[in-house]
Amino acid sequence: MSDTKTVGGGGTKLLLARFRLFFILILLMAVLSVVSPRFLSLENLSNVLWSVCIIGIMCSGFIYSPITGGIDLSVGSMVALAGIIANVLMNIVHMPMLPALLLTLVFGLLVGLVNGVVTTKFRVPPFIVTMAAKTYLFGIAMFVSNGDTITIMGPKDFLSIGVGKFLGLPIPIYIMVVMIIASHILLKHTVFGRRAIAVGANEVSAKLSGVNPDSTRILAYVISSGTATVAGIVMASLTQQAYAPNAAGYEFDVITAVVIGGTSLLGGSGSVAGALIGAVMVGFINNGLNLMNMPASFHPLVTGIVILIALILNQGFTLPAWMKPKKRAAGGQA
Amino acid sequence: MPIATLRRMILIGLLLAIGAVLSFLNPSFLKLDNLMTLLQEASQTGIVAIGFTLVLITAGIDMSIGAVIAVTAMVCVNFLSYTPIPAFLFIPLSLLTGCLVGLFNGYFITHFKLPEFIVTLASRGILAGIALIIAVKDSDGFVSNVYIQDPVYLSFGGTVGPVYIVTIVFIVLAFLTQFFLKRTRAGTNIYATGANPAAARLSGINTDRSIYGVYMFSGFCASLAAIFISARMMTAMPEFGLGSEMDVIASVVIGGTPFTGGVGDIWGTVIGTLFLALIKNGILKLGISPYVQPIAIGGIIVVVVMFDVWYKAFAEGIAKRSAYRRKQSGEAAAAVAAEADAVAGGDGKGERS
Amino acid sequence: QSVYKIGYLPSTLGQAATKAWGVGIDNALKAAGNIPLQSVDAMMKAETQVSMMDDFINQGFDFIILQPIDAAALTASVKKAESKGIPVITLNTDTLAPHFACVSMDDYGAGYKVGEAMAKQIGGKGNVAIIQSPPGAIAGVDREKGFRAAIAKIPAIKIVGAQNAEWNKDKALALMNAFLQANKQLDGVFAVNDNMAEGAAIAAEAAGRLKDVKIWGFNGQLSTLLQIEQGKVAGTAYTNAYEQGATAARMALDVLRSGTKTFAKTQVITVPPFMATIENVGQIPANIRW
Amino acid sequence: MSEKALADSPVALLECRRINKSYNGPMVLSEVDFSMKRGEIHALVGENGAGKSTLIKIVTGVTNRNSGEMLFEGRPIGIEHSKTAAQVLGIAVIYQELSLIHGMSVAQNLFLTREPRLPGLPFIDIGKMNSLAQELIDRYGFTLKATDVIDSLSIAQRQTVEILKALNSKASLVIMDEPTSSLTSTESAQLFGIIKRLKEDGIGVLYISHRMEEVYALSDRVTVLRDGRKVAVLEKAEIHPEEIIRLMIGRKLDDRDSVHTMRKSDREVVLEVKGLSSEGKFSGIDFQLHAGEILGIGGLVGSGRTELVRALYGIDPHDSGSVEYLGKPWEPGVAGSIRGGFGFIPEERRLQGIMGLISMTGNIGITNIDVIRKMGFVSDRKELDLARKAIGLLNIKPADPSVLVGNLSGGNQQKIVVGKWLIRDLKLLIVDEPTVGIDIGAKEEMYQTFARLAEAGVSIILVSSDLPELTRISHRILVLRKGRIIKEFSEGQVTEEDVLKASSGILPGGAK
Ligand SMILES: Nc1ncnc2c1ncn2[C@@H]1O[C@H](COP(=O)(O)OP(=O)(O)OP(=O)(O)O)[C@@H](O)[C@H]1O
Ligand SMILES: Nc1ncnc2c1ncn2[C@@H]1O[C@H](COP(=O)(O)OP(=O)(O)OP(=O)(O)O)[C@@H](O)[C@H]1O
Ligand SMILES: [Mg+2]
Ligand SMILES: [Mg+2]
In 3D, which of C32, C37, C96 has the Cα closest to residue C62? Predict the structure, then answer.
């Protein structure tokens, strides 16, 4: 095996892990296609990707927060807030679409900047900073929208982002794929990617090697918030709605996807492709349960169990002690 | 120690100040009824927060507490609806629910070495599902929330004098847990497990046992809170407690237990819980837009922790500098003497400063 | 005349219906002499709503208009309020303890009517699916029960699926996709609120099957009425939420002025629903669209 | 049975036979036999990665052996004995990695899992614990307070706590894995006294060290490991320095003497420091550094050496004073320093030097990101080349660049920390205790590397507590005391003793 793939946090083990994940995905698909004959239809798979795209887009940027050893719990609220702000700019301030969306994005980036600065410069743990941000961004979303469930009526171009199709596939899927690929390149092949991994692996060591841990981290949160904003815009256009409690709890779905994908919450390693597989896996499970018309009560149960199994399989299967074959005592000669 | 104490004093001071402002702005704040319901609210969160503090001390996290509340409530309702078992018998049994969940969490965390966050998140999902599945159904198969009328069960929502029982239980539990942490070997082991698990293991501590212990205790506390919540509301819903994780985490963190493990105690958590409950009550009392509440709570958490970090650095700086000065003047002389002895035939003169 | 302290405590302030009730109440109170209204948002959590009830009681409100998140969960609070001499009107969901009054929308009856109307639209036969609310949400459950009762009368109509979309538009969208995949023939979908119906319509439109599927919502909010006019949503059970709120407010003022404090039986006022479809939606004038 | 009788009994204290071990890969230990007696000081020596730490981890049950037999006091030890077995059996260990609990007091650490309890109750008696701890500290003559929190202690003090912790258990075997690597000579001397006392009490001491002087002076017997195999067991009479080193590394080393001549450089000044001060750390530091010069910085632990070089490298800010680099004013800052040709090897390897979960390639690449980058992108091929170069240069084992650094032996980790700088174009290299935990062969290699670098014109600032090292390879020595330069040795002959005296404030009359 060539060494070239193993640089920067790789290692042969991780490479194997990545393949393993892929096999788990195939396994899951096989199971689902047996359970529900409709599952493997092209149309259904495209529908699943469509329903996964919000989470997928969020994952592409979110992943940098765990890689640098932090976490960004505010992304769910940011998605909702982005939709509300975009709507205010387009339909209340009556800005043209493009500037309005750009301005929304700028706002998202600023939120990330605040998260990043507070964690790095003021040394507040990221879990707390972003949990607080999750809370106050939700508050701001409620405040701005006056708590309303807003139905977005226009502009036409905006609405077609979410439901429009290109070559038979919904546009959000393209957005997701592009962002995932960009993020993959960013992580694996750029200086920033290397720095993010280094900061997550050992901040002091990274610092002594000339990496500025603070600016690396800040950038990680900016990217995370930025992609959440994009996800929010896509979601608003997809559902033609802006509502503060929308996407509440999505941060947990994103974390789940990313962790299934082999990213360590302790920092220093991560895989964007893995995160996408993780997101698709969760999407498949939900879709499969829907196709089977499984009662709603069983969804969280099944999802939770499948997640645990996937994690255990992905990590390299360890048999519990009581299941292991009993070994004879030392070396046989005792 | 003084660092933590002073921080606590400041927080208590702040608590009193906010209380004073509130009672000035809204006379109904100081009414006994209001204070007691405030304490009741705080105690419900607080009981869960006590368990959560132990988890945080081991540098873990427990996202399943909300779902444990839901499942425990459902277990109780099942006992009430389908069995003749009296409340004083099935309540202890239902407290086992949380312990079992803790066992489950502990198993996956210690055996498979999966991250605590993701394990407890997964069990949160699983439990939320179980809560729905075991929820009491009407004849058409739809979930229906039982109206509890069992007097023994409902007495848990009652008061002794003006004080709610939940508050008394909270205070007693806080005392016991604090004593356990500081005065038993198991307590010390929990701190060691959080501060440096590798070193703890090398010192002969069974860190897995500590981890099992804290998650089971955390589950137990959540189950306990579930009894009080459902007794107060005279019903149990399968979505009880879901989402309350954030309040619990906020209380513990405001109380001064960090995420890094190895540090923290129960009194901090008690104060943190009171603080959060006071803020919530205050916002309601002042008739501020309800949407300001999340903004304010989020803001306060950041400010408190920011202050914490700044203050810790500040106090440590002072301590270090004074230690350095002491060292420069006093201990240096001793070191000189020692080194002079070690160096055979030293002919120089010892320096005194 | 003393100024009354009246509180409005809906499940959340964020939905078109809860908002419209609030406006209805407020307008009626203003008309009766600028009586202020305080409203708080329980954000769909029963525990929060209970503690807000406690707070209203402690603050000594004179009257509480409550839209209970759960019938059982709020019963204790309603009891407590009335025992302290604060009369309560419940909106939409009755509680188990007797109290002053309940102004209700008759979820079951309206759900039944939706079933009948949809059956007629699809010609009395075919496959239909239900987009549910979270388990245990009494309003959603009653609507579904009514709908199922109506459909049960027509053996040629089969219910091919029922899934929970948690009142959410985006979840309803993904769910509708699955329904469309799983059933090559799908003739009707009943979403137990308008929000989810709109989500289902987006999915059906994207799949090019909007013409074949009759999607019904419930509530009759502004945006859905618009979609009915555009032919995207087939119909909804409209209620005049303004009027519902105003009724509650007027009853509140009456009882406050009369000074009665104890009630042996809950007075139930039912506001009749209106089955809005593309044919008759024009009959709903703009000033009562919410 | 009396202690004397015990010591003479024929049953060995610890007996290991044909121990095999591999961590999912090559054999780390193969067919290793090891045996030690009561009341014996037994040294275990070998190159970095020879398997010393692994062997003791197997003895204490931290790691499982693949096969082999182990007897402690004549009783067999199972293959998967529990992690606490070492304590049950009566083995006390000072591990290579410090294993104290931060946030706890000295007393709490000393009594961890053995806290004295109130009579008849399961509750800890804190007062008794503190007084017992203080007694123990005083008995061995250390200057520590039982109630001090670990975090406030220096590394050397922490190491003494570690030693006390081992002494506090009633063990019949004490294992020490490089206990002196971060001790000063005073504390080391104290430790040797303690070791001798243990021996008199009939307790066996298994001692691992890379400091050969200690091995010669202390041990009754020496077991030499090489590449995971036992190559020799030497009795007291057979212990000869050259012999051990030959057995360890398979060749002879040059003789070293303890008197060295300092030499002034007349080449151009690379770095000029004027009046550099940082409150509470150091003050009024003035010196010049010439091209190709190795400037040693000596001093006692805590004299501010680390702080000074950190400030020069730009990690910590300074309050006043100025720095000139290559004749121009210079504002220290890490990124700028690296760009300007600085290299920095930090003091605490595991905390500051390596990224354990990342491959060697990744570790080396991040430091040299400027070399392998191109417009924000990095070249994997160049990165791998760099890694190969470093591995070759310092003979890092194993030579697979994809191995995670955390899985290397202590010494090889240190080689990564050093190696990632050596492959750069350096002008000035700052090294802080570079050879801690490095075996004697590798140490020599490293000295030669430094000498080569200096010859090529690279200036080196060397902070070291290892006096032989400091005096032997420095061209000039500055001695720091309480944050001030108290003495400069720039010409004439210097002995280790001279430096030590200067560090302690006893200024020798000779040099300067
Ligand atoms: N956890 C581990 N996983 C994989 N390999 C390991 C692990 N620990 C040690 N090794 C390998 O085992 C070998 C022996 O390591 P060990 O730590 O025993 O060496 P040592 O003799 O103590 O060296 P040093 O003097 O450098 O401390 C090394 O090659 C090392 O890379
Ligand atoms: N800001 C400060 N305030 C108080 N004391 C300090 C401060 N900085 C350093 N010290 C003390 O002075 C000592 C200087 O530490 P430093 O690590 O620089 O010493 P050193 O000479 O490098 O010794 P070592 O051999 O430990 O590296 C520290 O041990 C610490 O006790
Ligand atoms: Mg070692
Ligand atoms: Mg130092």
Answer: C37
Task: Report which of D244, D214, D207 is spatially closest to residue D55, judged by C-alpha positions.
Answer: D207
User: What residue spans define the domains of chain B?
Assistant: 3-288, 292-353
SS (H, E, C) chain B: CHHHHHHHHHHHHHHHHHHHHHHHHCHHHHCHHHHHHHHHHHHHHHHHHHHHHHHHHCCCCCCCHHHHHHHHHHHHHHHHHHCCCCHHHHHHHHHHHHHHHHHHHHHHHHHCCCCHHHHHHHHHHHHHHHHHHHCCECCCCCECCCECCCHHHHHHHCEECCEEHHHHHHHHHHHHHHHHHHHCHHHHHHHHHHHCHHHHHHCCCCHHHHHHHHHHHHHHHHHHHHHHHHHHHCECCCCCCCCCHHHHHHHHHHCCCCCCCCCCCHHHHHHHHHHHHHHHHHHHHCCCCCCHHHHHHHHHHHHHHHHHHHHHHHHHHHHHHHHHHHHHHHHHHHHHHHHHHHCCCCCCCCCCC
In CATH terms, the fold of domain D254-341+428-512 is Rossmann fold (3.40.50)
Q: What is the pLDDT of residues A277-308, one digit of tens each?
A: 999 988 888 888 888 878 777 888 888 888 88
Ligand 2 geometric centre to CA of D481 (Å): 11
> Chain D contact for B86, CB < 8 A?
no
Q: What is the pTM of this model?
A: 0.85
B-facing residues of A in 293-312 (CB < 8 A) are: 296-305, 307-308, 311-312
Any chains having at least 3 CB pairs less than 8 A from chain A are B, C, D
Q: Percent of chain A having pLDDT more than 90?
A: 44
What's the average model confidence in pLDDT over A108-118? Answer: 96
Q: Which residues, listed in sequence order, are joined to residue D72 by a DSSP beta bridge?
A: D14, D75
Chain A interface test: which of C158, C169, C179, C232 (most A C-beta within 10 Å): C169
On the question of a cis peptide bond just before residue D398, with omega within 30 degrees of 0, the verdict is yes
Tokens 């570079």 sit at which residue?
D434
Nearest protein Cα to ligand 2, atom 29: D302
Between A36, A240, A245, which is nearest C14 by CB?
A: A245
Q: What SS3 class is residue D486?
A: strand
Lowest mean pLDDT among A246-255, A316-325, C5-14, C260-269: A316-325
B3 touches chain D (CB under 8 A): no
Residue C176 has pLDDT above 50, yes or no: yes
What distance in Å separates the CA atoms of residue B321 and residue B306, rounded to the nearest whole number? 23
Contact predicate D504/B339, CB 8 Å: yes
Q: Which residues from B are below 8 Å from D103, CB to CB?
A: 191, 195, 262-263
Distances (CA, A) of D114 to C217, C289, D262, D279: 68, 75, 53, 42
What is the tens place of the pLDDT at every residue in C222-243?
Answer: 889 999 999 999 999 998 889 9
Domains in chain A, CATH or no CATH each: 21-314 (1.10.3470)
pLDDT at C158 over 90: yes
| Reported confidence tier of residue A1, pLDDT bands at 50, 70, 90 | very low
ipTM of the predicted structure?
A: 0.83
Query: What pLDDT, on a 0 to 100 scale, did the predictor assign at position D481?
Result: 86
Classified by CATH at the fold level, domain B3-288 comes out as: ABC transporter involved in vitamin B12 uptake, BtuC (1.10.3470)
Q: How far apart are CA B262 and CA C95, in angstroms?
A: 48
State the CB neighbour count (10 A cutoff) for residue D220. 17
Locate CATH 3.40.50.300 in chain D: 254-341+428-512
Confidence class for position D257, pLDDT limits 50, 70, 90: low
Identity of the residue numbered B326: R
B321 Cβ below 6 A of ligand 2: yes
Q: What are phi and psi of B79, to 5 degrees?
A: -60, -45
How many angstroms separate the CA atoms of D493 and D477, rounded? 12
